[in-house]
Amino acid sequence: MMEGEHCAGKIRILDEGTISRIAAGEVIERPASAVKELVENALDAGAARIEVEIISRQGGITRIRVSDNGSGMGPEDANLACMAHATSKIQSLSDLTRVRSLGFRGEALSSIAAVSRLTLTTRMRGAGIDGVRIVNEAGNVIEKGIVGCPDGTCIEVDEIFFNTPARKKFMRPIATEMAYITGIMERVILSHPAVSFRVLHNRRELITFPGGSVHDAALHLFGTSVAGLLIPVRYSGARIQVDGVISLPSLSRQNSYQIFISINDRPVQSRPLALSVRKGYGTLLPADRFPFAIVNISLDPDLVDVNVHPTKREVRLRHDAAVREEIAKAVELALEGRDLTFVAKSPEKYSTQSSILPEEGSMQYMPDEKPPLHVAEPGKATLADTERRLKQTNLGFSSFCEAESPLPELEFLGQLDNTYLLTCPRGGEDLILIDQHAAHERILYEQVRNAGGREPECQELIAPVPLQLSPRERSMLSSMLPVLEEVGFSVEEFGRGTFSVRAIPVIVGKQLDREGIRELLSSILSGEMPGGPSDRERVLKVIACHGAIRGGTPLTDEQCINLIRQLRRTSHPFSCPHGRPTMVTFKKRDLDNLFLRT
User: Which of 159, 191, 209 is the last residue in one of the domains?
Assistant: First the structure.
């Protein structure tokens, strides 16, 4: 820029069309966001029955239809409903401190209408036979008239994101978008169990729930295997009330994805609150396990800020530490005094075609009317299983030259706590501790990742394992099936809500019962939504973790040496696939310092 010149005209006021589309993008991220907003509006309207229908074709979701039997709207309200910041939920700024409705910002309908063709058909309850129908396209009313319709409201959203091609371009595959939708509907149903819900996709019924208790909702969504292990939680404390159901300690998960929390009937996702539920179990669960739980926390609206995020995904609590303590107390009291004995079930071993004896050290049922339990020390069966695992992973490195390894040749010294291998560089002075699980996990991961286009090695189960999955898990599994088949799973749909597992990858081992297989798949399905190139990577990491030798497993000296040799053959021997270190080095000079030998 030359001296004396001025830069003018760089700042512009955006036009209303651009503003509305930017605002719509903040609220309506994907079709599931539209479903969430429309269902919440139906609940705020006092609906006792809500139906969600999704229509899709190869190009993606083409129609979302949400109908309810709520209070409906008259012509005047219907005319205002799709205008920005038009709402019946709040009247003034002070109302924001005591929000009890699910929708209150006046952005939902206007945001959806700005990026779709939205048809609103509604009739106020008790207003006669005539209702009103308004068609809105890209934020503009193009049609309006009187129609006959039942009480309540029906909203049809066609060609969502038709005028925002960038947003439409980044939509995931249909199965993935349906997983988002069913996941949202699960949380809505669990937080409003008294309401009847029906969810359809291309006229196929995905969810039907007639309404009832929260336990009834759990039964419909997750089946008897979950619902049969739930107990009620009811608590009234200084600041909050807690109601819902929690699982007995015998039902647990590897992560917190099935801890469903709502605040004043509003579903929220909060890791601190989920950890509060977990804290209530104390030592009843291992440190790395989480319960199944559905809890609603009731508290004074003044103590919660629901206006933190445009999609109302997050909330902020006053006195949050005290609230978390009360949640933990509610769970602790619900478990107190109950018989929490783990029930040993008949071990349905879904073994592979090879004959496998029950592992020594496990509880075994003898064929008797009152079968005694036998517990043995880990012995030959445990060592034999470890030997099979190491032989399997040894096959993947037959052509690797150990001289190329970034890890120096190590001398094995011993095993510590059946978890760590004590080694030192041959001819060196440092001490290197190797985590046997992390090391074997790295070995397995590289073996399956480098399989390339080869046919996956799978083991057929003698008896297929039936798994009853939740609607969200079913949608995710449908999307993940090609990846699962690519790595060695054989999974088929078997009746409504049930899938049959017929084969699993060889590398996960040969002794998985129904719960073990269920745990393996739930680890895969509990992560991020599928639909991208990272799907295969995530599956491989889970398989490697489940197939790897566990910490606490005794190994012979020969097995330890074999494990070290295999680790040296990997490309990246210094960390497991999840980024944890496989080994830690103690320098001799640091050891000298510890013993004051400086």
Answer: 209
